Amino acid sequence: MFNLFLVAFAAGLLLGFSCLFLSRRASFLKGILMDKATGVSKIGGVGLVLSFFLAIYLFGAPWFLYVAFGLTFLLGVFDDIFVLSPFKKLSAQVVIALFLAFAGVRTDIIFVPPALNVLITVAWIVVLMNAFNFLDILDGLAAGLGVITSLAFFFVAYRTHNYMVMALALSLLGSDLCFLWFNFPRARLYMGDTGSLFNGVVFASMAIMLSYAPHGREMALLTPLLILALPIYDFIFLIVMRFKAGRPLTQKSRDHFVLRFLGRGFTTLQAVLLMFLFNALFCAAAVLFLESSGSPAAGVLLFIFSVGAWLFAAHKLSSVKVNR
Question: Which of 5, 20, 43, 238: disulfide with 170, CB 3.0–4.6 Å?
Fold first, then answer.
């Protein structure tokens, strides 16, 4: 199965260089393919997604995953090129989430009716898509978080014998790791909505699919939530900060958690590495929950420490003045 990682990584290299070549040489497309402020190609997500599809095709995923992930890819491409309105973007995300839910990728909470399970699934997928979209704000950030998160999902899937999630995690790991080489400060390619929305929908789907993996301890069901704790907390932080400032959630601003590190004097690289550290701590807590023998105390303690550190940083950073 490791060949899925190698295929995704190798294809990502080829497609990444192709995106660079196309953006720089196709002068008639520069206005569409290049970010006007930085001159960096914004179609890097295309190579990321296509390399993932090539790898997962070798494994043989269910048809509905191809459809849902393909629709997400198209949504991202259209948004990167035409800049869709928030309403159109959200509507498309809801349609994709509903499709996945009715195709079988949904929660199955026994004490709530089926309709509510569908609503929970839709909310979960839409939130994760937007959470990863919001995290694509600094060079290397979204791709690096994707690498760490993919590793955690692969480990949990391996321990719970969920081969489909293993394949998804390895394929996305190869694609994100390769893209990180192009995107790490200073970036030569941007992920764009194409890559960030795609990461979000794949991780949201893996989390739901893992929830029903056979395992001896019920506490292991919490591991997907812990793995995705950072994008969820970051999403909440952004909502709170924009609400306090009286800004609409859809209005672009510098309220992001990671950008406030820059306001404190950190460099871009330092801010990105700190986010990697937070993500690694949450993922490590998830693994400890899964691996705990008899008692999840170690995982609980690490999770409490991680949340405490995050809340302390959030409290300090919430007072940092940001520009609109």
Answer: 5
